[in-house]
Amino acid sequence: MKFSRRIAEIPPYLFVEISRKIAQKRAEGADVVTFAIGDPDIPTPANILNRLQEASQDPPNHRYPESEGLPELRQSIADWYQKRFNVELDPSKEVLPLIGAKEGIGHAAFCFIDPGDVALVPDPGYPVYSIGTLFAGGECHWMPLLEENDWLPDFNAIPDAVADKAKALWLNYPNNPTGAIAGGEFFEEVVAFARKHDVPVLHDAPYTEVSYDGYKPMSFLEIPGAKEVGVEFHSLSKSYNMTGWRIGMAVGNPDMINALMVIKSNLDSGIPQAIQYAAIEALEGPQDAIEEHNDIYQSRRDKVIKTLTKIGLKVSVPKASLYVWAKLPDGWKSGPFSSLLIEEKDIVVTPGAGYGKYGEGYIRLSLTIDDKQLDKGLARLESWKIPDPS
Ligand SMILES: *Cc1c(COP(=O)(O)O)cnc(C)c1O
Predict the structure, then answer these.
(1) 350-371 average pLDDT score
(2) Whether residue 51 has its Cβ less than 6 Å from ligand 1
(3) Which atom of ligand 1 is nearest to the CA of 172?
């Protein structure tokens, strides 16, 4: 059987070796502690689940939803952006509910990329930006995210010829996997760059509500002129522990939103309506859960950082996101290091190289692990002496 080139061209899955080791360990009866998965362990808040249950009983919600989402949900998203970021959005033209941000991110590539086109993509980065580009027949121009630049791309390092022909600029702050944040000055630079080179901006922002030490991440759309050049992807997944319900949104530039709607309406039939009502409850109901969850993540963050520092890893303290990004001792590569952690300590972390070549030399630990498992995992690490790299 012959498959398309896009199937053949998907880069090899870097976690194969690690997945195999986890399975082997578990088969041997080991109590494997995993810091690898970015998926909130705490359940969806009760008020949201109650609304979902109620809405699921209502027969109109058993039928096909509209691709563009319920008008009430689009209004509710616009109101939330107004309340949270002081960003004004027209719910009829500048808001599009998604079956999770990932769906919109993947499909967005088809709005901007023709075969041979170039997208500017961060490295390390969430893999869907580059895979979407690849599926649309495009190529990635990688923007290294380096510690010395606070994990922000250096636009001056992009040759003018590349910037001028680029058809999309992907960004993600608060950042997965580095935990880095971006402020107004950076986003102003983004808008200026987008204007100068006429390149649409696609900012992925699912972690604006997951933050620590009193820090409040901003929306890219708060910057004057941002809506003329870009859209923002957001999600209820990380804000309200709703990863399993699959609901997110794209907001911003009406022409870009319309293009995404054209692609989506030809491929999917929208979000199950009961879930849309649950999302309305999430956005409009009590918001206390967000702070409660952030307190839990923050205390986990502090414990993880303390242990990692103790065993000799260099960690930047994240002010947002669900991740701790740790630098390995010189000479260590992330794959072999992660394998060794499973072999010796029954602990799973994500090798940084899985997020791109500039992620090499780092590992990512997720804070979405319950406290008992987390304490157990950290206790195993406490007294570990990292061997010299072979
Ligand atoms: C989790 C995550 C998403 C996906 O969000 P969904 O709404 O669950 O699809 C998108 N981007 C980044 C960077 C993420 O970490």
Answers:
(1) 96
(2) no
(3) 13
Q: Provide the 10 A C-beta neighbour count for residue 253.
A: 21
Question: Of the CATH numbers 3.90.1150.10, 3.10.20.30, 3.40.50.10490, 3.40.50.150, which one belongs to the domain with range 5-44+289-382?
Answer: 3.90.1150.10
Q: How far is Cα 339 from Cα 337, in angstroms, rounded to an integer?
A: 5
Q: Ligand 1 center to residue 38 CA distance, Å?
A: 9
CB of 130 within 6 A of ligand 1: the answer is: no
Neighbours of 27 (CB within 10 A): 8
> Rounded distance, CA 130 to CA 362, Å?
20
Looking at the predicted structure, is the pLDDT value of residue 12 above 90?
Answer: no
Query: Can you tell me which atom of ligand 1 is nearest the CA of 98?
Result: 7
With beta carbons less than 8 A apart as the criterion, state whether 154 and 202 touch. Answer: no
Give 210-268 pLDDT, tens digit per residue: 999 999 999 999 999 999 999 999 999 999 999 999 999 999 999 999 999 999 999 99
Q: Is 102 in the pocket of ligand 1 (CB under 6 A)?
A: yes
